[in-house]
Hints:
82 residues, alpha+beta, Nuclear Transport Factor 2, Chain: A, 4-stranded mixed sheet, 3 helices
Amino acid sequence: MPANPVEVFGERDGERRRAAIARIHQPDVVFHDPGGPVTGHEALHGKVQGILDGAPPVVRGVDIALVRDGRIAQLYTLLLTE
């Protein structure tokens, strides 16, 4: 879980991010945020890219992860921008 914010949500290089997603998340991972859920590695990658492209750096937030077989299966994220 500690690698997720840095290696997935903080990684601007797409190939390194894809490798981290594959290592850290289940193939059927469901990522939930205020924009709605997305499912799977590519959908998560696209969501993260959108966050990195479209929002100022976020310094606070809360993640809740449900883990299956050592990898994240469900991830709930609340981003606090204030």
